[in-house]
Amino acid sequence: MATAMQQQPYRGGSGYVARSSSSGLYDVLELILDKGLVIDVFVRVSLIGIEILTIDARIVIASVDTYLRFAEAVNRLDLMSTETQGLPELMDGITEGGASSKTKGVLQGAKQALFGDEDEEGDEGDEEGEEGSRTKRRTSSTTAKRRRSSSSSSGSSQRRSKSS
Amino acid sequence: MSATKTDTAKYVYGVIPGSGASPPPGPGIDDAPVAVIPHGGVAALASDVSGDFLEAGREELLRHSRVLEETMEHSVVLPMRFGVVLPDEETVHQRLLGPYGEELEAQLEAMKGKVEITIKGIYDEAAILREVIAEDRSIAKLREAIQGKPEEATYYQRIELGELIAAALEEKRAAAAPPVIDRLAGLAVDVRVGEPVHERMAVNASFLVERSRLEEFDRVVDQIGAEQAGRIQLKYTGPLPPHSFVELGIGG
To answer: What value of ipTM does the predicted structure carry?
Structure first.
């Protein structure tokens, strides 16, 4: 399917920036749910656990849980080496290619609520999971490198849909 | 509420100009075809959904996003937030296109040729923690005091340590974000700075960029990415319809 991305002549050369188009749902979740025109008079579709997601994320940044995780991470840190240890990822895909772990974070919890229950597969190859988010760079070599879960259409969603 | 009494309702994806409007090729939510509802100078993109709507999950969110993405390939489009459902076509005229028509037309004009790009930056954990330890004696000392001791014995100290780190990161964020945002804002028409939604988020901003300047914008993003390599990982998403830059005032 042609996408707006293909209109861009310059697709980056540095390799330091992770890119994706709007086809990667995780990258646009915030925008779709939180931004855009809305008519107040009409009730929006109720999305259990989703509407509060961004607010929650802010609160959680200043929480005991977060503090304890920071403390743990800083204690584990070997100041001499370059090894990295992960904190929970709230924003999926942001540290693509990094070494962060995928323990449960706030947004991820909400996303499990969202994607865990009904996960019928789409008919147009909607395979984006957190890392598979269709990185649409022209330079396919870097794209391939970034995709941890590549094109198997259910890999990432299965991981996610272990829900509960 | 009463909006869901009838058998079918209209799910609205966005608003496009009324003249020469054509719907995107792909199907909308529930595989329903997306139709154009014209009204003077503007038109809504909508499809039928069941009146007692709506399993809102991955598929629906994707469709919403896809319809807008397809539309923006050939037209300016003002995106609706996900989940706007009106009871019928009549109501789309009466409550959206009628009362807000002029406003929508003006915004369509303003958004012509422009796209939204979101830039997020996350500190590399190890790199930023090393910085924090190196720069802050109290953090370094507390870390040393805790190390090797059992977790139960150091619960409150660990909270204190984490709190100090969070505060230090906040300070770093406050210092790091503005220069990055300013550089990109210089190439953008408009910018919206968001709250951090990640513990290690350094930058979270949306830029409204002229398509004609996108290449230039992208180059600067890459430059910044290279400068920050190993410290802040940048994530670039777009081009997107201008979600962060549209708004309806108090209409009719």
So the answer is: 0.81
Host domain of residue A155: 20-120+127-160
Residue A148 in domain: yes
Contact at CB, B57 and A114, closer than 8 angstroms: yes
Q: At what angle do helices B125-135 and B155-185 cross, to 10 degrees?
A: 110
Give the whole-angstrom CA distance, residue A14 versus residue A19.
12
The residues near B158 (Cβ < 8 Å, ≥ 6 apart) are A67, A68, A71, A72, A75, B146, B151
B225 touching A, CB under 8 A? yes
In a domain, A8, yes or no: no
Look up tokens 């094109």; give the residue. A151
List, for residues B42-79, the tens digit of each pLDDT value. 999 999 988 765 667 778 888 999 999 999 999 999 99
Contact B165 A34 (CB under 8 A): no
**CB-CB under 8 Å, B81 with A42:** no
Total domains in chain A come to: 1
* pTM, full prediction: 0.73
* Contact by Cβ (8 Å): A62, A106: no
